[in-house]
């Protein structure tokens, strides 16, 4: 099982980034996929999730700015992040959850700074 995040980087406040998480080694379409983020000294925070059937949820702090989506044909989940704020800066992780097992990627750094 492998999850590889990409797309992080440095962006100015108000800018956009699109994170991707490429999955392999499991039946991707059967797993719920979730994006988390973590800053040093704080617990990992759920950002947005998408179920195996495509239903989505996200936290209030990103509503209207972030959109999670999945491409089952490419075994990939995306997080489109718009109107980025300094408080969005974190390491972003994707997680695959089957209902029994979970797997995590290594994370991708998002820095929001002028």
How does this model look, in words?
With 114 residues, the chain is mostly beta strands. Helices cover 0% and strands 53% of the residues. It contains no helices and 11 strands. Strands 2, 4, 5, 6, 9, 10 and 11 form a 7-stranded mixed sheet that branches. Strand 4 (32-38) and strand 5 form a beta hairpin. It starts with a strand and ends with a strand.
Features:
single chain, mainly beta, seven-stranded mixed beta sheet, four-stranded antiparallel beta sheet
Separation of the first and last Cα atoms: 37 Å
Q: Which consecutive residue ranges, at least 5 long each, have pLDDT under 50? A: none
Q: How large is the count of helical segments?
A: 0
What is the 3D shape? globular
Secondary structure: helix percent: under 10%
Structural class based on helices, strands and sheet pairing: mainly beta
Draw up the topology in text.
Elements lengths: L1 E5 L2 E3 L5 E8 L7 E7 L6 E6 L5 E3 L7 E6 L4 E6 L8 E8 L4 E3 L3 E5 L2
Parallel strand pairs: 2-11
Antiparallel strand pairs: 1-3, 3-8, 4-5, 4-9, 5-6, 7-8, 9-10, 9-11
Give a brief outline of the structure:
This protein has no helices and eleven strands. The protein has 114 residues and is mostly beta strands.
